[in-house]
Amino acid sequence: MKLYQLHAIQSIPVSQQVAWDFLSNPANLANITPDDMGFTILSGADRPMFAGQIIQYKVSPFPFYSTKWVSEITHVKEGEYFVDEQRYGPYALWHHKHFIKAIDGGVEMEDIIDYKLPLGILGQLAHPLLVKNQLEQIFAFREQKLIELFGTIPGREKILKFKSF
């Protein structure tokens, strides 16, 4: 069983409250997800985020294939972090921690995603060929959309790295 981790950091020139209000609103996830993912919220995004919240999406990770993705918001510390975990969907495990902290000139957003692919060795073979590339594209798109919406902090570079265990 191989586990993977994606670690991303991006800084934007907004207050911690503005960043929190945007990132903790599940409806905004569609705005920062590439159109070709066919991302649609089916239910659960009609109220402010809370621990125990279940959100259902439809996503098309590959052409001609779509699936439901059910997430539970398991932890929330208002203004600072939240955690979502996949309950049903394309991954064998998906645990996504979102952190927001104030820095000089804005906020630093940090994502740590621990995930496992289904299908054993086939999933492991698909990781470098498909999954890792797709996650890189999703985070590059998200970075660009956040820059378009909020700007960037000069001198602060983004970080995107993968590890496997």
Plain-language structure description:
There is one protein chain. The chain is of the alpha+beta class and 165 residues long. It has one domain (4-164): START domain (Alpha-D-Glucose-1,6-Bisphosphate, Chain A, domain 4, 2-Layer Sandwich). The protein contains two helices and eight strands; from the N terminus they run βαββββββαβ. It has helices at residues 16-23, 120-150, and strands at residues 4-12, 40-43, 54-62, 65-77, 81-88, 93-103, 106-116, 159-164. It has an eight-stranded antiparallel sheet with strand order 2-3-4-5-6-7-1-8. Strand 4 (65-77) and strand 5 form a beta hairpin. It is globular. The termini are close together. The model has no long low-confidence stretch (mean pLDDT 94). InterPro entries: START-like_dom_sf. This is SRPBCC family protein.
Features:
single chain; about 160 residues; alpha+beta; Alpha-D-Glucose-1,6-Bisphosphate, Chain A, domain 4; about 45% strand; globular; START-like_dom_sf; SRPBCC family protein
Number of strands: 8
| CATH architectural group | 2-Layer Sandwich
The main sheet comes to:
8 strands, antiparallel
Helices and strands, in order, run as EHEEEEEEHE
N-C termini distance: 9 Å
Organism: Aggregatimonas sangjinii
Protein name: SRPBCC family protein
